[in-house]
């Protein structure tokens, strides 16, 4: 299969204070979220001068991929500039006809996989009819992703080798989780990483919940777990995130760290995949799977490699 380019498709984030409210309005459009909650989340961004680190980290990822791949690499976001529609329009102007897309999410869920497919289809219909874009598969149990996260975890464990090990991911509504392999993949990946660093006991907790109290979301929340268990030392691994964006630097590095300080817990936080050389090598391998039929589709654990094309029943959110 011949492809002309790779496009990195991500969530997006504001880069200055005036961007924050328009960005959050894009994120929450069509969702029944009170404005008071939106303004509360806005304060997280104002805490860092209105700038989310996600765009800068995506620029670093794109730069690393350009050094590695023989394909031109583009980048477009779901919620903030560069917007996905603008990027595919430019791709078509540049003569790109067939491209692969890397979504910045390792796990299968509506917001982490299917919604990105919907975003791509909508952007192509609006801005670049005729351009073909195929999304790369999710990679939660790819050996190079597991190795990357194991190395990040081992680095955090070095000063506190006996620390409790807690993996975190973005919480989602239970009804959303029930239509995907999200929680199952997270538990498999956490177990694989824990085994590589020599840990037999570990916990999967969730963070960054945004729904109303009446709606069940995946639990336990990382804060609730810390209050209940009160380990002497803890290493928190943001397994569900591939870069240190706002949910990591605020919900973990700020809120969870402050809570640990109040409880007398020594906390260390593992890094995310970022531009780790093995993570970049994994992306190149995912591309080879699509360009060279017969390339082994590597995975660890029992779930197997995710499909290139998801069935219609996969990751459907009942609300939609």
**Spatial order of strands in the largest sheet:** 2-1-3-4
What's the CATH C level of the largest domain? Alpha Beta
Number of helices: 12
Q: How widely separated are the two ends?
A: 33 Å
Low-confidence stretches: none
The radius of gyration over CA amounts to 19 Å
Number of domains: 2
The CATH level-2 architecture of the largest domain is identified as: 3-Layer(aba) Sandwich
Descriptive keywords:
2 domains; 4-stranded parallel sheet; Rossmann fold; 320 residues; globular; alpha/beta
Description:
- This protein has helices at residues 20-28, 35-46, 54-68, 84-93, 110-127, 143-157, 174-177, 182-196, 222-229, 246-249, 251-263, 277-291, and strands at residues 5-10, 73-77, 98-103, 132-135, 164-170, 203-207, 233-237, 266-269.
- It is α/β, with parallel strands linked by helices.
- It folds into 2 domains: 5-139 and 277-291, Rossmann fold, CATH 3.40.50; 143-269, Rossmann fold, CATH 3.40.50.
- The strands form 2 sheets. A 4-stranded parallel β-sheet has the order 2-1-3-4, with helices on both faces. A 4-stranded parallel β-sheet has the order 6-5-7-8, sandwiched between helices.
- α4 crosses α5 and α6 crosses α8.
- The longest helix has 18 residues, at 110-127.
- The two termini are 33 Å apart.
- The mean pLDDT is 96.
């Amino acid at each position: 299969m011949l492809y002309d380019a790779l496009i990195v498709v991500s969530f997006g984030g504001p880069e200055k204070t005036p961007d924050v409210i328009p960005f959050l309005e894009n994120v929450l459009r069509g969702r029944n979220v009170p404005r008071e909650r939106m303004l509360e989340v806005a304060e997280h961004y104002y805490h860092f001068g209105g700038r989310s680190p996600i765009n800068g980290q995506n620029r670093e990822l794109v730069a690393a991929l350009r050094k590695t791949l023989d394909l031109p690499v583009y980048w477009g976001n779901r919620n903030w500039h560069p917007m996905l529609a603008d990027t595919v329009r430019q791709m078509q102007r540049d003569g790109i006809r067939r491209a692969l897309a890397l979504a910045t999410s390792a796990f299968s869920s509506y917001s982490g996989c299917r919604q990105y497919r919907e975003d791509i289809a909508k952007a192509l219909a609006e801005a670049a009819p005729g351009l073909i874009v195929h999304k790369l598969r999710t990679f939660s149990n790819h050996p190079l992703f597991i190795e990357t996260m194991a190395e990040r975890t081992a680095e955090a464990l070095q000063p506190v080798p006996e620390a409790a090990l807690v993996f975190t991911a973005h919480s989602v509504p239970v009804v959303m989780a029930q239509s995907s392999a999200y929680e199952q993949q997270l538990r498999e990946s956490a177990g694989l990483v824990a085994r590589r660093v020599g840990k037999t006991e570990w916990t999967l907790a969730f963070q960054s919940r945004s729904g109303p109290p009446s709606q069940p979301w995946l639990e336990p929340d990382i804060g609730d777990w810390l209050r209940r268990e009160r380990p002497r030392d803890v290493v928190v691994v943001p397994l569900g995130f591939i870069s240190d964006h706002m949910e990591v630097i605020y919900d973990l590095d700020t809120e969870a760290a402050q809570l640990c300080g109040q409880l007398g817990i020594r906390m260390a936080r593992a890094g995310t995949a970022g531009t780790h050389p093995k993570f970049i090598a994994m992306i190149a391998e995912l591309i080879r799977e699509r360009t060279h039929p017969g390339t082994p589709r590597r995975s660890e654990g029992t779930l197997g490699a995710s499909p290139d094309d998801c069935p219609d029943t996969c990751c459907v959110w009942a609300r939609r």
